[in-house]
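Schema walkthrough. Field components (list of strings):
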Amino acid sequence: MDYFNETIDSLHTKLVNKDITAEELTKDTLQKIHDKETNLNAYVTVNDDAVKDAAKVDADGIKGNLSGIPIAIKDNILTEGLLTTASSKILSNFMPVYNATVTEKLNAAGAINVGKTNLDEFAMGSSTETSYYGTSHNAWDYTKVPGGSSGGSAAAVASGDAIAALGTDTGGSIRQPASFNGIFGIKPTYGRVSRWGVIAFASSLDQVGVMSKRVEDSAEVLSTISGHDVHDSTSSEKEVPDYRANLNKDMHGVKIAVPKEFWDEGTDPKVLEQIDAALDVYKKLGATVEQVSLPTLKHAVEVYYVIASSEASSNLQRYDGVRYGFRAKDVKNIKELFVNSRSEGFGDEVKRRIMLGTFALSAGAYDAYFKKAAEVRTIFINELSDVLSKYNLIAGPVTTTTAFGINEKIDDPVAMYMNDILTIPANLAGLPAASVPAGLADGMPVGLQLMANKFDEQSIFNAAYALQEENKFYEQIPTALKGED
Amino acid sequence: MISKDEILHVAELANLKFKDDEVDSFVDQLDKIVSMASNLSTVDTDGIEPTYHMGDTSTVFRADEGVHTQTREQMLENVPEVQDNLIKVPTIVDKEDDE
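Field assembly_structure (string):
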């Protein structure tokens, strides 16, 4: 089974009509995953036991739309009894004893977890190259990165291994890989989805979201995983809309702002060509498109890396080799246990961020770096909310280039960080944002980014759906996969 | 400029250690990253309140009742070394320092 011509709806119909059982669907999916792993390395753990879960769904009967539907889960989201590593050596032996709330909600809906997808270690990276389990590969060109940190989820969906996958987005970790792989990916409003059981990177920025080939499938899954959770006091009590049922592709009267800085940040002209074409589609469909300015955008990367790294340095203090995870051998005392376990257990990128964060929070640097970044964050939030008080959506490219080559940027952290400049704004302000396939540049996918007001995911889904129905990008099979099968 | 001594001090605070050759490359890379972050000083933030968190600022109350969702056995499942149902760690008080 591959998912190029399927939607959750079409699979649901087949399951209800008994054209296929959930067990058969899951077996087929797992076989496909195993066949493609050599080329993609999209998964840290393939959940072969999922066949049993599917058999149980068959026995209980197909109920809701997600019942019996195979979905992949990023490996920084806890799955009870299934290894969860955050792609780090320090958690390489970690077996969760409870589920993340999002996992629990998918299970309750009858979805089948077919495996845990590869990511940059602790979601820190933009290429999946920092994973302890090796890099994943782009489904369009195996010599290129799939993006990150949700690179495994993106590669799995783009290659037809999974109809949908969960990702997490701290600075663009769903949208950038979605863009690089020619799929849809949405990061919802901060607080829309519970973070309980999601391995923390930067608590004021992290959010779980969804990736799929089709907009309607992410809409379905996002409604399922959203909502208030007593375990996460930052999760919102707002009612969860049925995004799928409310999909509406009418763009008349929709006001779209395009920040001129998105065009100025050295963005590849071939990428911009695809974005301009997508904006023309919106104009044709009746939307108004106007240029605006976000002058503080040039500082977004600086603000992000100071804040994200500071929060990470605090969150990652818990990895000390005492209660779980990797423990260093042959240590003389408790201090050495902490230091050796952490030094041997964390990879270079994680150490770099812990070091930057610890520095930014240290006595001499706190005001100049951490507090200053938090103040500039406020200015930036105000700029964005000013634009969104006048417009329904902000649109622009997701990334300045298409997917880059494996090993191309990994030794230059600053160049790698600059890669996230266009996705970071949504996280700093807690806004929902998505990447929608817009077209190809030099044979590689380009994503259009759409941002909306807090809790207005529906406007993003609607606009994404409108573009999808015009360009039908989902009909394109990734280049690297052609000729296989 | 970030000095090697500063890097070693921060590593100490972060409970990390680096091999000698690693320290030099970290000095170089962190220096570039900190230089980038130093651009923030050019932004006028007089009178601007910092944003430290994104959640609702209202306090959340719940009944003061313990909720036990995992057993002791489950809690100990991931512990690297267990003895007599307790987490085992190396010496906390260094005997040589005491004596």
